[in-house]
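FAQ

Q: What does a record look like?
A: Structure on top, sequence underneath. For example:
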């Protein structure tokens, strides 16, 4: 089909020089695809390089502990991806004798691998003609063919996959899949696509009918949940700091954080001191407390907005769940906390004297 041939020709002329395009090793492709599931290429590239250097083979990854993997992943978000990588690496090494699944069907059995990732690995590594459908592909197909079916509807997911499967070049599935994704990323961008220089502009329905800004269509977004976090940065004169691992099935599972008091709305010092959680965390006697940020720091996740305040506490008491201040940077923490640590070395270094 002319559509497929033009895409592939464009790709061969315009593709970016990326390390995972120089290999068909399924381990490397798997790592890259998991990183890029929810991450831009420019952000994910350095993480990919660090990951491959640290864990050059699936056996190296399978031997790692979760904290090491999460620390390496720190800042990428969607940390379940990292936990699933580790789980699947151990499964492949122990249950599959280190042999990577080589079909779309078997790849789907890996934890954290859905249709898109399985299709990408199967086509790139094993030449299986199974089409990828990600955000870029949805956008290209919706605009070119003028499809108004919502891409996040049951019908949309089914129809777009079927269309992509019909279009794939069965002799060059890896090239076609990478071409259509790259085309969506560089040419048919979400905003301000370069329609004038587009090789498909003479037959693009969206361009002809002035629907470029309208397509693709999504059903209504899920309501954003607001959460109010109060972090207690508890520091002792013995150069200890309170830090606790998140173990509940919630955001940032497995990462470390300062003692947290979550409230239904923003609170002031008076209300903080009255909470049961505060009095369970620390004895208020001989504690100097101050609010770091008057205005909440807003941290936006896909379906949640975190409104965060940091409270600085100095105490002579023994601190529960404490670690040496010097080892703080060895623990994986949410980017919200990492940013606080990096921006405020003066707060932590204020304990360098015994005064």
């Amino acid at each position: 089909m002319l559509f497929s041939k033009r895409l592939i020709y464009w790709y061969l002329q315009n593709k970016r020089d990326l390390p995972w395009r120089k290999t068909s090793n399924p381990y490397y492709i798997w790592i890259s695809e998991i990183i890029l599931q929810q991450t831009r290429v420019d952000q994910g590239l350095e993480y990919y390089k660090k990951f491959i250097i640290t864990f050059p083979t699936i056996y190296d990854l399978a031997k790692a502990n979760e904290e090491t993997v999460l620390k390496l992943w720190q800042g990428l978000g969607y940390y379940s991806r990292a936990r699933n990588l580790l789980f699947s690496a151990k499964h492949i090494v122990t249950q599959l004798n280190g042999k990577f699944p080589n079909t779309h069907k078997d790849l789907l059995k890996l934890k954290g691998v859905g249709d898109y990732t399985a299709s990408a690995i199967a086509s790139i590594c094993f030449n299986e003609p199974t089409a990828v459908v990600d955000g870029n592909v949805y956008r290209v197909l919706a605009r070119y063919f003028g499809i108004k079916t919502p891409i996040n509807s049951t019908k949309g997911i089914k129809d777009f996959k079927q269309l992509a499967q019909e279009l794939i070049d069965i002799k060059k599935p890896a090239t076609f899949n990478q071409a259509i994704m790259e085309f969506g990323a560089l040419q048919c961008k979400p905003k301000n696509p370069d329609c004038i220089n587009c090789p498909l502009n003479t037959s693009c329905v969206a361009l002809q009918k002035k629907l470029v800004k309208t397509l693709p269509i999504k059903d209504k977004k899920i309501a954003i949940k607001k959460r109010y976090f109060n972090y207690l940065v508890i520091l002792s004169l013995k150069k200890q700091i309170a830090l606790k691992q998140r173990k509940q099935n919630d955001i940032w599972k497995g990462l470390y954080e300062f003692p947290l008091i979550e409230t239904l709305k923003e609170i002031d010092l008076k209300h903080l001191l009255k909470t049961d959680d505060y009095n369970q965390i620390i004895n208020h006697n001989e504690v100097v407390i101050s609010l770091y940020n008057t205005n909440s720091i807003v941290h936006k996740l896909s379906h949640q907005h975190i409104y965060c305040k940091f409270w600085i506490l100095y105490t002579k008491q023994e601190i529960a769940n404490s670690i040496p201040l010097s080892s703080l940077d060895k623990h994986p923490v949410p980017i919200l906390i990492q940013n606080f640590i990096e921006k405020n070395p003066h707060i932590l270094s204020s304990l360098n004297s015994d005064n």
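Q: Is there anything notable about this one?
A: The chain is about 45% helix and 15% strand.
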